[in-house]
Amino acid sequence: RAKADGRGTYRFFETGMDARAQARRLLEMDLRAALQRDEFEAYYQPIRDVASGRVVAFEALLRWNHPQRGLIAPIDFIPLAEETGLILQLGEFVLRSACTDAATWPDDVDLAVNLSPVQFKNPNLIASVTAALAVSGLDARRLELEITESVLLQNSEATLTTLHELRAMGVRISLDDFGTGYSSLSYLRSFPFDKIKIDRSFVSELATREDSMAIIRAVTGLGRSLGIVTTAEGVENDVQLELLRREGCTQAQGYLFSKPRPASDVAMMLNRPRLLASA
Ligand code: C2E
Ligand code: MG
Ligand code: MG
Ligand code: MG
């Protein structure tokens, strides 16, 4: 009896795996074809200086214009792209197109690009960044690369070398989604960061949870003491912005200012003091 149950369970499990593996294979084929067909596009979200309100940078956020499924967000394809290694080609595409776009912006507006841990580990990273800057003509000092804490868990000497090489080129490094991973304060001491991006989860509960407020206060204070810029992610309303301003958070990014939009909307995002959250 137990054996029969076991077999039944096993068979069920196997069928489930098959369906999932099948879906994965389809998505992988779709991803490869999409790269050939040029279906990927960098969207941009403005980042504002909290004190002056000026747009100081845009973060490039990848979108997939799928012919049948419409616009697909990164959460639905980046994990598989990372597993299959396709993220290297995708990352190369984002870097090139974003640097090319940013080279046409006013030169006091910077560009932030997300780097996958897979890209970061790739020995070709420095060459790839160098080429993107050379081809686009973008000044290295206008480029910020965003990495997450998971990068720091890996081989720390190689990581440190790569970070130093990038900074020697003039590129700045941001620690993305701070507070969500294996946040360790020793990272801030061991690795050369220019910016800490405080994860959206802390910002969203800023006005309603004392502990979120305390964490924001601690991180902005830490940034100030260490000479590191702090950026709050996911700012959706004026109450949050005001609290961040009071805590001395350097920069803010979120739907309050604008959702990520295509490159053709950058001029409008620069000109308008603020877009409605619902826009
Ligand atoms: P991230 O780098 O932390 O980017 C911020 C995410 O928060 C973006 O989601 C953005 O649209 C969203 N966001 C910004 N403001 C608000 C807000 O006020 N409210 C809410 N609810 N959300 C807000 P998106 O574009 O879906 O990207 C998700 C993640 O995918 C990114 O998180 C990043 O980790 C990854 N990603 C995006 N583009 C790339 C890329 O080109 N390369 C790599 N490796 N990863 C990317
Ligand atoms: Mg980011
Ligand atoms: Mg982030
Ligand atoms: Mg995030």
Report on the structure:
- Strand 2 (55-66) and strand 3 (70-72) form a beta hairpin.
- The protein has an 8-stranded mixed beta barrel with strand order 1-2-4-5-6-7-8-9.
- Helix content is 50%, strand content 20%.
- The longest helix has 36 residues, at 2-37.
- It is an alpha/beta fold.
- Bound molecules: ligand C2E and magnesium ion (3 copies).
- Residues 59, 114, 146, 176 line the site of one magnesium ion (MG).
- Residues 45, 60-62, 73-75, 78, 91, 94, 114-116, 146, 176-177, 200, 233-236, 253-255, 260 line the site of ligand C2E.
Lay out the secondary structure.
Blueprint: H1 2-37, E1 40-49, E2 55-66, E3 70-72, H2 78-84, H3 87-102, E4 110-114, H4 117-121, H5 125-136, E5 143-147, H6 149-153, H7 156-169, E6 172-178, H8 185-190, E7 195-198, H9 200-204, H10 210-226, E8 229-232, H11 238-247, E9 251-253, E10 261-262, H12 266-271
Parallel strand pairs: 2-4, 4-5, 5-6, 6-7, 7-8, 8-9
Antiparallel strand pairs: 1-2, 1-9, 1-10, 2-3
The chain binds ligand C2E and magnesium ion (MG) (3 copies).
One magnesium ion (MG) is lined by residues 59, 114, 146, 176.
Highlighted features:
279 residues, alpha/beta, eight-stranded mixed beta barrel, 12 helices, disordered N terminus, disordered C terminus, binds ligand C2E, binds magnesium ion
